[in-house]
C-alpha cells in the first residue's frame, strides 16, 4: 500500500491562559466530567502560566521525525494535528486535501489500546475527515507500540538513570512505581476487541521496562490523573495512595516512571512532579521521577519503522517487539466501545 503523508496526531493543549477553559471544554464535551474537577484542572494549567508543554513537545518530535525521514530517504511529508487544540485535526486534514494528499498514515502519541488511548483518536480522525468532506484523504492509524523497543528502551534507560540519583545504601528499600492514566473501570473492561487490553498492555510494558532497568527491585503498576464524577469507579490505586501504603511498608524511596505516556506533558509535570512529589515529601520518601521517550532517537526511529511496516510488502515481518500479547495493524470496529455506545 502506498501513502503520501504521515500525520502526527496528539492530544493538544493550551498555550495561553485565555485558552485554558475553551481547551478543557473541548476535552470534556459530553464526557460527564464535573465542573469542580474542571476548575481544579484549570488551576493546574494556570499554575504553569496557562501553557501546556505538550504542543512544544510535539513540535520537537515533528522536527525530529522530519530530520530522521530526510536522513533515511523517506519521502513522506509530515503534518501535525491535535484532537483538542490548535493545530486542530480538521484544519490539518483540510491542508492535506489542499496539498493533494490522498492516503496518509497517522502516528498517535499514545502507545496503548483502549477508548481514550486509541479509539477516541480514530473517532476524532473520522470526524475531522467528515468535516472536510468527501475529498478528505484516507487516514490510517499506525499500530499500538506498547512493547516496541523504541518505546521500552528509553523508558528503561530513564528508570536506570533515575535510580542512580538515589542513595545506593538504600537501594534494597527502593521501589519502582510505574504509572499510567487511570480510566473508568468500565472502559478498562471493554478495552480492545476482547476487553482488558489497556491494563494488559501496561502490565506488559511495566514487566519489560522493569526487566531491562532494575530486575532486582520490586515494582508496581498504579494509576494517576483520575477524572470523572467520584461515584464512578476508575482504575486504582492512585499513585498518591500507593506511596502512602509503601511508606507504611518500610519502603524508603521510589522511582516513579510514567510508562503510560510518551512525553513530559502536564499530567506528568503536575500530577507527578508536583503532586506525587509533594506526597512523597510529606511521607519522608526519596522521590525521583523517570523521564519519558520525548525525542529519544530510538523513539524517533520507531516511528520510521512503524511506517515501514505498513509501506513494505509483507511488512509484518519487520515488526520489532519485545512482548507477547496479540498485535494487529487495524482495529476491528466496534472496538473499545462499551456495549451501550455500540452502534
Ligand atoms: C488514557 C488517557 C491518556 C493517555 C493516552 C493519551 O496520551 O492520549 C490521557 C492523556 C492526556 N490527557 C490530557 C489532558 C486531559 N485529560 C482529561 C480527561 C481524561 N483523560 C482520560 C484518559 C486519558 N488521558 C479520561 C478517561 C478523561 C476523562 C474525560 C474523558 O472521558 O475524556 C482532561 C479533562 C480534565 C480532567 O483531567 O478531568 C484533560 C485536561 C493530556 C494533555 C496534557 C497536557 O496538556 O500537557 C494528555 C496527554
Ligand atoms: Fe487525559
From TrEMBL:
Keyword Iron part of the UniProt annotation: yes
Protein's name in the database: Coproporphyrin III ferrochelatase
Residue sites binding Fe(2+) per the record: 181, 267
Keyword Plastid belongs to the record: no
Intracellular or extracellular location(s): Cytoplasm
Top enzyme class: lyase
E.C. designation(s): 4.99.1.9
Sequence similarity: Belongs to the ferrochelatase family.
CDD domains found in the cross-reference section: Ferrochelatase_C (cd00419), Ferrochelatase_N (cd03411)
Lineage, top ranks: Bacteria, Bacillati, Actinomycetota, Actinomycetes, Micromonosporales
Summary of the function given for this chain in its UniProt record: Involved in coproporphyrin-dependent heme b biosynthesis. Catalyzes the insertion of ferrous iron into coproporphyrin III to form Fe-coproporphyrin III.
UniProt superkingdom: Bacteria
GO biological process: heme biosynthetic process
GO molecular function: ferrochelatase activity; metal ion binding
Catalytic activity, reaction form: Fe-coproporphyrin III + 2 H(+) = coproporphyrin III + Fe(2+)
InterPro entries per record: Ferrochelatase, Ferrochelatase_AS, Ferrochelatase_C, Ferrochelatase_N
Binding of Fe-coproporphyrin III, residues: 52, 121
Pathway of action: Porphyrin-containing compound metabolism; protoheme biosynthesis
Principal location listed in the UniProt entry: cytoplasm
Keywords associated with the record: Cytoplasm, Heme biosynthesis, Iron, Lyase, Metal-binding, Porphyrin biosynthesis
PANTHER family: FERROCHELATASE (PTHR11108), FERROCHELATASE, MITOCHONDRIAL (PTHR11108:SF1)
GO cellular component: cytoplasm
Amino acid at each position: 500500500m502506498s501513502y503520501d503523508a504521515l500525520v502526527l496526531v496528539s492530544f493538544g493543549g493550551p498555550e495561553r491562559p485565555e485558552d485554558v477553559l475553551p481547551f478543557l471544554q473541548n476535552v470534556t464535551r459530553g464526557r460527564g466530567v464535573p465542573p469542580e474537577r474542571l476548575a481544579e484542572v484549570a488551576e493546574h494549567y494556570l499554575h504553569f502560566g496557562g501553557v501546556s508543554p505538550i504542543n512544544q513537545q510535539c513540535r520537537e518530535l515533528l522536527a525530529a521525525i522530519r530530520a530522521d525521514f530526510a536522513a533515511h530517504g523517506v519521502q513522506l511529508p509530515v503534518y501535525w494535528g491535535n484532537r483538542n487544540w490548535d493545530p486542530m485535526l480538521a484544519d490539518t486534514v483540510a491542508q492535506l486535501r489542499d496539498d493533494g494528499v490522498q492516503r496518509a498514515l497517522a502516528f498517535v502519541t499514545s502507545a496503548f489500546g483502549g477508548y481514550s488511548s486509541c479509539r477516541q483518536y480514530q473517532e476524532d480522525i473520522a470526524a475531522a475527515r467528515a468535516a472536510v468532506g468527501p475529498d478528505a484523504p484516507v487516514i490510517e492509524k499506525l499500530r499500538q507500540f506498547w512493547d516496541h523497543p523504541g518505546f521500552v528502551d528509553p523508558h528503561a534507560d530513564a528508570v536506570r538513570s533515575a535510580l542512580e540519583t538515589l542513595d545506593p545504601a538504600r537501594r534494597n528499600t527502593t521501589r519502582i512505581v510505574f504509572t499510567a492514566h487511570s480510566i473508568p473501570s468500565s472502559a478498562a473492561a471493554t478495552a480492545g476487541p476482547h476487553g482488558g487490553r489497556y491494563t494488559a498492555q501496561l502490565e506488559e510494558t511495566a514487566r519489560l521496562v522493569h526487566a531491562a532497568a532494575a530486575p532486582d527491585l520490586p515494582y508496581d503498576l498504579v494509576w494517576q490523573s483520575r477524572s470523572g464524577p467520584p461515584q464512578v469507579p476508575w482504575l486504582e490505586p492512585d499513585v498518591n495512595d500507593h506511596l502512602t501504603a509503601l511508606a507504611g511498608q518500610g519502603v524508603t524511596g521510589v522511582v516513579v516512571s510514567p510508562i503510560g505516556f510518551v512525553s513530559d506533558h502536564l499530567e506528568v509535570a503536575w500530577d507527578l512532579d508536583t503532586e506525587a512529589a509533594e506526597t512523597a515529601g510529606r511521607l519522608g520518601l526519596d522521590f525521583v521521577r523517570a523521564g519519558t521517550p520525548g525525542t529519544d532517537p530510538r523513539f524517533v526511529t520507531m516511528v520510521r519503522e512503524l511506517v515501514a511496516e505498513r509501506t513494505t510488502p509483507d511488512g509484518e515481518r519487520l515488526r520489532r517487539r519485545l512482548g507477547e500479547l496479540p498485535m494487529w495493524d487495524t482495529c476491528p470496529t466496534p472496538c473499545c466501545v462499551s456495549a451501550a455506545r455500540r452502534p
